[in-house]
Request: fold
Amino acid sequence: MKPILQLQGVSKKFRINHESEPYLSLRERLSRGFSMKKNQLEDYWALQDVTFDVQPGDSVGIVGKNGAGKSTLLKILSKITPPTSGTIVCRGRIASLLEVGTGFHPELTGRENIFLNGSILGMRKIEIQSRFDEIVDFAETERFLDVPLKHYSSGMQLRLAFAVAAFLEPEILVIDEVLAVGDAEFQKKCLGKMEEVSRRGRTVLFVSHSMTTVQSLCTKCVYLEKGRSSGVLTVHEGVRKYLAGSHNLHTGHQQFDEPGAPSRAARLTEAKILNVQGKSTSELLTCEDFFVQLTWENLDGVRITPSIELVNYDGVKLFWSGDTQVDWDGSGKTERGPYISTVKIPANFLKAGEYSFVLGLYTQSPYQYHHLILSALHCSVVDPMDDRCLARGQMSTQFEKFMLLPALEWSNIKV
Reply:
């Protein structure tokens, strides 16, 4: 089967105009005469030699830091701007949702814009009419169909634009981060529709900075960095590359040196993630225990409770844990000196994903944190996709819509 989309050596150059002298007022310009220096021009390559193929039915997440070239790539694919060099072969009709209001006319009504936008996407009038009711129902704009679009809110325009792009069923659906404009309920609705479009064999290209959304929606990934592409990767590889570029990833081991830091009653000096073999690592399996080990010092002889919080890469705090089961108020660690505290994360508790920890040392009464370190010990938890994953069993699904995947105790009694 031929790829539905092929990019070979695609590059895009912009010319940046730099003024060679600062802004001058009219009086200053007159006093100097009207001699003007030429501005300096700089060539900026937003994309350089991007090459990859997309197969029919793939859901491809395009990820990268701001300025990596993601939006430029989508605009080239949508034929909004041409590439400077390279070739693109597209074997299907593309519908794009890049900016709120793209392809709409503010003076036309919602009804008229549905037909206008559909025509821009290459649909015939009879095709648009056959899906018209579904589009209006999804967009929830029935009351405002005959109101000019200029009176719509940005959220209403977004709902209408997404509905047109999704329901007219192009072979390729291209969506930028425009969904961030909508409210949470509408975003969930859109993601559900995108999943449905993908299941029906359509191809989706999706740009997002939410790695959870990319992992739940996409089957493959393209990582862009400074305009260059890594080619088509697995979602796990693409997310790892993105996180490695966005965060200071460690190999499951961090030391905390604080030259010139204020005096503390207690301080963290080192932290490690240990696998079941006791080796420091940031690559873990869902089906194996792992441990977080904190090395710290009690400097003032106060009661100390060490704690951890697990955070996913959307910033959601998944759980908190302190050593209260073995030393409920910290009174067992009041002697001055170094300590090592270790907490076990059980196997078959976390689902596959990217995580980090918040590390802390605090006194319960009076409540006071002595040392708190955010975004530490970044790690990747991988599902081996075999029968070792007790919670999933033999099912191949990854249960993307859930944050945790614990293997809880069940019992069955026939009555």
